Amino acid sequence: MSSSEEAKMGDVLATEADLLGMIKEYLTFEEFEETVQVFDKECKRKGKLVSKPRGNALRDSKTRVIQKDLLSSFDDGDHKVFFELWTENIPSEVKHTDTEAQSLEFYLHIHFSIYPLRRHPNRRSCGKDDQAEFEERISLFKQYLETRGAALSQTTEFLPYYALPFVPNPTVHPSFKDLFQDSWIPQLKSKLEKFLLQSLKSSKTPRLLTLYLNENRSTMDFLAESDRRITSYVRKFNKTQADYRNLIGITAELVDTLEATVSGKMISLEYLQSVYVRLFSSQMRQRMVQSTDFTRPGTGYYSLSPYDDGYVSFMRPKDVPMLPSLDYEKLKKDLVEGPLRLRCLLLQALRWRLTRSLPGEQRDTVLQGFISNDLLKCYNTNQKTVLDMMRSNNEVVRQYTARLINAFASLAEGRAYLSQIPKLLKVLTEALKTEDKESLTRKNVLVALQKLSLRRSQQTAMIDDGLIGWLVDELQDPDCLSDYTLEYSTALLMNLCLRTKGKRKCAEIAKHVLKVLTDLLGHENHEIRPYVNGALYSILSVASVQQEAREMSVEEILRCYNKEENPDLNRQIEFIIKQLNSAEEEGPESDDEEDEDDNDEDLMEIDLDKEEVFQPQQRELSGESLLTTEYLGIMTNMTKVKRKSTPLPQPNDDEPLQRPVTPSSYRNVRSLIPSRFNSRPPTRSGSRPSTTDSLHHSLGRGCYPSMT
């Protein structure tokens, strides 16, 4: 056998011995004593070498000494000795991947930083040496926050402590009073002892188990990343499907128009402009319309081509028919008096008629049929109405009623109709506070309220009903809320905070509101930041809120975010800080303005029909077949409603939101404009508001996300 072959054979035997050693080490660790004995006999009989496990009694003795020295330096406040031992003896994989270790290390840095203050709670009684020591330690703590501690700046629990180096006297600051309680040190030491007992023993963990855990962790990370990608693809698909429906509807209308021109009918420039507004309703808004010369043929190509990825061919649709008229009197009677199952089927069918109709004339006709026949009985207060079903004992009835109301609120004319129902907000806010937190009923109610908050009259009613205080309480524990609920809740809170009346409500509980909003800035869901920034910017125009913010060192907390690699966010933070330090008095509110804050944008989410919990039985009529079979009415001439176009102002990267919005159309405006909106990494952050000329006329009038 050659020397190279001998070397290879030696490596194989060494690897086999090491593997058998790991197996024996694991069996010993789990105390399989009889199995170990059989394993040893079998290995000896076969002449297999078994490597010895790493470690011995000397290591155990050394571990106890290290643990004792760490606890002693903790008690003495000797941060240099402590962190030298910490660095040398705590495994690096524990320090960098274990959240408990990172949390404990953060609080240990706080402990050693304020140690001189604990010896002298009254800073005035500190000697020069103590004062110098405190300033040195605070400086070291600041360095830690900017390096290893920066990873925790996105965690709500730790965010207030990033202001600690900037607070003149932490002993009297309300945010840090817990640090100087007598119970804080014993609690921290107890956590340290438990951690040391576990982590210093971690070196004894069998190598076989360590290999398995590492592989399992990698697999879980891969699955989590896959889930995130799937969610992203589903959202893109939903948006593409909605755009497709819109394009098919417009294409059908244009085919009819072309046929009319062949017959010699004239087409007005106003009509062409209205088609363009609808065509680009979720994209370029008014800018696209203004860039097109309607007096010159063919200019539409130049408006469309910069946003076209090559040649797009459209399938010519058949003529889009108008849906049959219904017997609304019979329909309304069965909705409130019929059996539960029939009510669910009707609520579902009516919603589908709205959500599945083609955007444009067909959907407008459906909605006008509902409104002109007063489907929800908003003008009839003496009888039981569809809205009363929100108080039904049946959860499916409540959910499907909420879904229908949400569908109405997705359309501008529907919001105007809902706003005329006197008891609407009372019923919806009651459901919001009583339904289970993440139930579909509650989500639909929340989204409907958020869309209705585009209208001034509804904003006023929500503020008067105490919704701001309820939202702030709900948002103080964001980790208990889904991303969907969190996004709509913050967007609703911002819309209410933009009103002078809303700002005054916030001023009554300024400390609570500021604490919740600054905590939300550090939340991992970056989609909420535009609304948090907008709310902060708005309420900081009130002098009493500014004063409370200064006492809470809000400016120092905000400056922590300027270190992030996000120039848009940094500019918005600077605007908020400028607002905090401004001396301008808040102007009077024009509550006598006409209720025209709503925009005329319709964004009917496909997700409104997701997660259907009610399924028709075999041969049971449902949907349009139920309506046209059992409730067919006499066809009447429906008056077409000419809707006024109120396009959204284009968002600006620099300033916080200062106009009522809803999340999804706001997101659509940003995502489809080829500018700085798409030059950033694919995070979920970004607030996009106003023009630089005026802080009081910013991003426009309506956006909301799709239900996922």
TrEMBL record:
Residues 65-201 form the ARMC9 CTLH-like domain. This is LisH domain-containing protein ARMC9. The lineage of its organism: Eukaryota, Metazoa, Chordata, Craniata, Vertebrata. InterPro entries: ARM-like, ARM-type_fold, ARMC9, ARMC9_ARM_dom, ARMC9_CTLH-like_dom, ARMC9_LisH, LisH. Residues 640-708 are annotated as: Disordered. It comes from Nothobranchius furzeri (Turquoise killifish). One of its GO terms (biological process) is cilium assembly. It is found in: Cytoplasm, Cytoskeleton, Cilium basal body; Cytoplasm, Cytoskeleton, Microtubule organizing center, Centrosome, Centriole. Residues 462-581 form the LisH domain. It comes from the Eukaryota. Keywords: Cell projection, Cilium biogenesis/degradation, Cytoplasm, Cytoskeleton. Transmembrane segments: none annotated. One of its GO terms (cellular component) is ciliary basal body. Residues 679-693 have a biased composition (Low complexity).
